[in-house]
Amino acid sequence: MMAMTWNFESLRLLPAGLAFRLGAACCLALACQLPVAGAAAAASPSTTAAPARADAAWSVDRLMATLARQPSGSARFVEKKYMAMLERPLESSGELRFVAPDRLEKRTLAPKPETLLVQGDMLTVERAGRRTTIPLRNHPELAAFIESLRGTLAGNRQALEQYYRLALEGTAKRWTLTLTPSDSRMAAAIAAIRIDGAGERLERVEIRQADGDRSVMTIVPTGGQ
User: Fold this and answer.
1) Which residue among 4, 75, 91, 132 has the highest number of C-beta atoms inside a 10 angstrom radius?
2) Domains along the chain?
């Protein structure tokens, strides 16, 4: 059910380092296929009206309710980071796990092992045999970024709207949720976070940085709970 991407190079460099290493997190666009001309002409009014009513009823609140029905999930991920200074994207892969309401874990297996764990107000990083724990309350921009992932996975609209303006496109089958920072400090680092999904599954997360760099994480559920 899950999709996210998160990493960080340095706590004081949210724009480049943190946004890329915390990654991209957590939805889809466009679900209805248009019928061919002949089929469209033959369709009855009752046949064509139902999808229109369903699309009109789709909303951020319905998306949040759908996501909130998944108390936990695990997934494999592949993350690509596109940077202007590099000819080719940097690629990493590993495992993700979310347990509602606030436990988020990312285990990078390649190219180098690293574990990031967010639980409550604390972020713990394990890398090269060293462990560091960081209180999120001391880093509001970092907290805002993490909430973009955790709030989406938990279906918590209130948490998301503390930091972002929400825009939803698509349908319940395939949707795209775009988060635009409402705080000027966050906006100086992140232009937008785009989350693509299908139903209750998060499938792709793209982080677009203000400087033009971006990261894209693709998520494949493993079915573990």
Assistant:
1) 4
2) 14-34+60-221 (2.50.20.10)
